[in-house]
Amino acid sequence: MLQTITYLKRIxxxxxxxxxFLFVGTGTCTDVFAQVQSxxxxxxxxxTLNAIQKANDHYYERNYTEAIKAYQALLKxxxxxxxxxxxxxxxxxxxxxxxxxxxxxxxxxxxIDEDPDGSYATQAVHQLSNLYxxxxxxxxxxxxxxxxxxxxxxxxxxxxxxxxxxxxxxIEGKHEDAMASYKYxxxxxxxxxxxxxxxxxxxxxxxxxxxxxEAEKLITERMKLNPxxxxxxxxxxxxxxxxxxxxxxxxxxxxVLEKNPANTAIRRKLGSLYIELGNKEKAIAEWKKLVAGAxxxxxxxxxxxxxxxxxxxxxxxFQEAIKINPQYGYLYIQLAAAYKIQGDIEKAAAIYLDGLxxxxxxxxxRESIWEAMLEIYQGDRQKPLREKLIAQYQKAHQAVxxxxxNVLTLGELFFYAGQLDEALxxxxxxxxxxxxxxxxxxxxxxxxxxxNQNPSAIEFYKTLLQLSRDRRIITSTQYNLAKLYQNAEQWxxxxxxxxxxxxxxxxxxxxxxxxxxxxLHGLHNPKAAQMTLQPLFAQRLIGNQFMEAQLILGExxxxxxxxxxxxxxxxxxxxxxxxxxxxxxxxxxxxxxFATEFDSAVAEYRKAIRLSKSxxxxxxxxxxxxxxxxxxxxxxxxxxxxxxxxQFHLTGNTEAAITQxxxxxxxxxxxxxxxxxxxLLGSIYRSQNAYDDALHSYRQIVAQEGPLAAAALTQxxxxxxxxxxxxxxxxxxxxxxxxxxxNSIVPHARQQLDKITKLMKHSxxxxx
Length: 768
What we know:
Elements lengths: L1 H25 L2 H32 L3 H11 L6 H17 L3 H14 L4 H15 L4 H14 L4 H16 L3 H14 L6 H14 L3 H14 L4 H13 L3 H14 L4 H13 L3 H12 L5 H11 L3 H14 L4 H13 L3 H15 L3 H15 L5 H17 L4 H13 L3 H12 L3 H17 L5 H11 L3 H17 L3 H13 L5 H14 L3 H8 L9 H17 L3 H13 L5 H14 L3 H14 L3 H15 L7 H14 L3 H14 L6 H14 L3 H14 L4 H14 L3 H14 L6 H21 L2
Helix pairs in contact: 1-2, 2-3, 3-4, 4-5, 4-6, 5-6, 6-7, 6-8, 7-8, 8-9, 9-10, 10-11, 10-12, 11-12, 12-13, 13-14, 14-15, 16-17, 16-18, 17-18, 18-19, 18-20, 19-20, 21-22, 22-23, 23-24, 24-25, 25-26, 26-27, 27-28, 28-29, 28-30, 29-30, 30-31, 30-32, 31-32, 32-33, 33-34, 35-36, 35-37, ...
């Protein structure tokens, strides 16, 4: 965008200067008219450029539907040919991103057919074949490329198509075809920019298929055409080396270095060749030339030695590098790797710990060292090593209690050993002396636990909140803690923390949105959510934020039975064609559902499905359609009762929701919707932590062995997981897997069963 603005400014200045001289030079009315006309043209150009930039912004922001509309509108206006071609290419790519391959293919084909020698045609060939490649349809891509070659022989488009034909044949494993196609490409399109790549690929294919003579012939023929091409010399040297013709390879490498002594890749290979020949001294001499003058020469040498399994030399080089730069953590990782590869685990651990001592509290460096160290530190086999290191640093801590490095390392040892309480105690003791470093450490470990979905993340964030005096850290911690409480369905705790942000005037728009969502979906209090939203409308919200606020407000209205008002708020969002359109359309469907206007609800849900790019939203709308269409018995009275019960539940009127469900079950025990009512009743009890009542409700569904039985078993298993009754949770998942093996929920059940099994094994290992 900045480049476009600068360009427009230059146009403006140029046009102004030209207009000035024309006017002064003649002073005629005709020239005045020309000036006005020029200004009009200039304004039109600016308007066009702005429109193009806006269309491109839609594409790069992944608003592909909006981009398509913008490109189509622009293509109906006066544009240069270059602008048209560029725009059509972007239009085709937008269709491709939306999965509308038919339209994308049509546009790319038009670009190719109109000017097969144009630069946009070659790009279109790539994009057209890519539609097949990204679906691994290489055979179809090959057919397409051959059609382009036949239709536009000797063109730029044909050159790209010929190269891609060989490439796709190579990927398909059709080596003979690929070799023939690469040869055809090189013979017919000698000036193509893909020539070097094609030669390398063909040489590689010849070599893989042990057709060394043909590979050598290809390279030597090309060298005659371009004797200064050191890439070809390198290819030939590689070929000789692979065949064991070391002396010939050696001469070629030396030849390349004579012509280009700065070629580091060749010097590195020459050193490797000397190693193959058993001449370590010459290899080292070449590598030392390679790194001569580099500030990190010892580090580079160490890496080269390590890659050639020269561990003694690698250790010495990394030790020298550490002397020069003792605070660079990567050097300790490499040095430890040299010991680890040789099986000296204790020495490797000692090097990692030296690194932790020397890099200081820098979180990024410590994290990278620990990432490498965990390979030897974690696991049951390494338990003695962990205990030894912890004991070592406990003694060091007792000797010097305020030493930052010792305590940081001890806390980290506890953390990675899974002794999280001890880690927290250790960091808490040190906080009064080194608050900044410990703040950052606690923040880092809390985020690691959060990423790993470990419930102890809450305790780490709470400790950080108690200890820190840094306003930025406190604010971000409160927000993160609120999200964790939300995930744990601890709605009141989440809301209280976010209200604290509001009280301290540190709440962001995101945190206020989160509070409104929690009040709406967790606490089932749409009135409170609406009150949270109200101040936001007085602020300057950007487009998406404003629509998100309107979306939540619309949902509040529909749950409070203000159906017409809800639709008035949601309709502009639907018409905006943004990512929120489908959600708004689905909520409009809900407004009709809760108003018991079921036909209108179905119509809106179907529209939402057509708009949706979200599997969850699509599934929710489909489930609601099925619920309506499958439960028309008893004049839809039980369906109406279900809608009323659901609305009671979502507005926090729990007693009324339970009573409505129980009355429906009692009055219409044979109704088709009974399993859905039991499912809803289970959800209501679960939201109140009344787990025994929830289990009873779900078991009624399982006993009927109906379509919802698998979902009910999943709910039963999740309740047992929440209660940490892993044995019963495992039984429920096992029953689901054996009874309903074809159900779509099976992959999730398997994943959870694996997780539970690991937890049970871990619990057994740690039990006294």
